[in-house]
């Protein structure tokens, strides 16, 4: 019985000893785990350089995205008020056009009839005018009854109304009534461009009959294009009319386009965004409607403490800087960062960093040294 008790004690002691030996490497923490120690050769190879933080003016940048839009007054739908058959056109989507240029030639027998009615009515109007003047003189001398004079007057004024109506119909059809005569009656009319721009849509083909309600072409005047941006509800109070912004495309982010905010929508979409319209300061032919763009809006400027971007390293989603700690030693210190601009980042810390030297070059090498040290 004594042997059994002794054996149990020995086994218990040995197992506890083994457990302590097995656990001790895991529980033991390396000393100075945030301190990187380097010799002079390592410092030289890592390119370590120290500098004091600087005070600079930085701006909070609000980043937005959207696309180029065209205001309704710069989109023109071309139709034929009286209808007709398309006889000729050279237009394709993207074709540039100038104001007054012939877009298409339309043909229909009603154009002939309209011109005939106008010239016939014009000749009748001259006859009725002469008869009206004659009956007026006769009525003054009582050589003609009032009834005959009133009939002549009614016919004359009715013909004037009809002629005015035919005159406007001809103008609507694209025919100049002032130049119309029996020798130049035409079965076709020309459709002219009302603006300078380019063709965005072509909805017809040669020989097709087009009714007055159909749209033949759609023209766009791109000189007054807008940039429509989406702004989230939480950022709406940061922007205002007249504010300046810089827009750029994903393909060429280095090329900036200056814009000015001209309108802020008062309605929120399902995604809780509002549309903000901005106007380009200078028209660029390369900017096309529907093109997606990004924009940066500069908000309030302030003076803050900054370090170069290379001085700040990120580890486990936290930001750190390295400061000298004695000879050839560098301590990794956690900081909070703010606005970044032109290669510098704002440093936010409760401690006074104004006179604190920091590693501005080689910080990443120090981080790699610490990580390798912790893995060992």
UniProtKB/TrEMBL annotation:
Annotated SUPFAM superfamilies: HlyD-like secretion proteins
Occurrences of domain CzcB-like C-terminal circularly permuted SH3-like (ranges): 306-348
Pfam families: BSH_CzcB, CzcB_C
Domain CzcB-like barrel-sandwich hybrid, first and last residues per copy: 75-219
PANTHER family xref list: CATION EFFLUX SYSTEM PROTEIN CUSB, SLR6042 PROTEIN
Family: Belongs to the membrane fusion protein (MFP) (TC 8.A.1) family.
Protein name per UniProt: Efflux RND transporter periplasmic adaptor subunit
Origin species: Dyadobacter subterraneus
């Amino acid at each position: 019985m004594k042997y059994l008790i002794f054996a149990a004690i020995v086994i218990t002691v040995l197992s506890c000893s083994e457990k302590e030996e097995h656990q001790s490497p895991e529980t033991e923490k390396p000393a100075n785990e945030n301190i990187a120690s380097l010799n002079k050769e390592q410092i030289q190879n890592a390119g370590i350089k120290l500098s004091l933080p600087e005070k600079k003016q930085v701006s909070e940048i609000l980043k937005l995205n959207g696309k180029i839009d065209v205001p309704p007054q710069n989109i023109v739908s071309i139709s034929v008020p009286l209808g007709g058959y398309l006889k000729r056109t050279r237009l394709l989507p993207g074709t540039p056009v100038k104001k007054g240029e012939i877009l298409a030639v339309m043909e229909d027998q009603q154009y002939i009839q309209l011109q005939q009615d106008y010239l016939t009515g014009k000749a009748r109007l001259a006859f009725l005018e002469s008869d009206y003047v004659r009956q007026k003189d006769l009525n003054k001398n009582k050589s003609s009854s009032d009834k005959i004079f009133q009939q002549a007057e009614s016919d004359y004024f009715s013909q004037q109304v009809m002629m005015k109506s035919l005159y406007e119909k001809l103008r609507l059809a694209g025919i100049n009534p002032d130049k119309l005569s029996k020798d130049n009656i035409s079965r076709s009319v020309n459709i002219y461009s009302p603006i300078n721009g380019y063709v965005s849509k072509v909805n017809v083909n040669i020989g097709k009959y087009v009714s007055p309600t159909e749209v033949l072409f759609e023209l766009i005047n791109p000189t007054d294009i807008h940039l429509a941006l989406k702004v989230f509800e939480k950022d709406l109070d940061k922007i205002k009319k007249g504010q300046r912004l810089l827009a750029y495309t994903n393909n060429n982010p280095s090329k900036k386009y200056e814009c000015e905010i001209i309108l802020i929508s008062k309605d929120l979409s399902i995604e809780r965004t509002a549309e903000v319209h901005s106007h380009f300061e200078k028209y660029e032919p390369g900017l096309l409607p529907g093109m997606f763009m990004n924009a940066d809006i500069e908000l309030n400027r302030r003076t803050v403490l900054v370090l170069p971007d290379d001085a700040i390293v990120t580890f486990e989603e936290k930001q750190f800087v390295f400061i000298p700690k004695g000879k050839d030693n560098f301590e990794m210190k956690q900081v909070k960062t703010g606005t970044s601009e032109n290669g510098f980042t704002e440093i936010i810390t409760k401690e006074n960093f104004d006179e604190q030297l920091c590693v501005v070059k080689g910080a990443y090498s120090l981080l790699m040294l610490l990580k390798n040290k912790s893995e060992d």
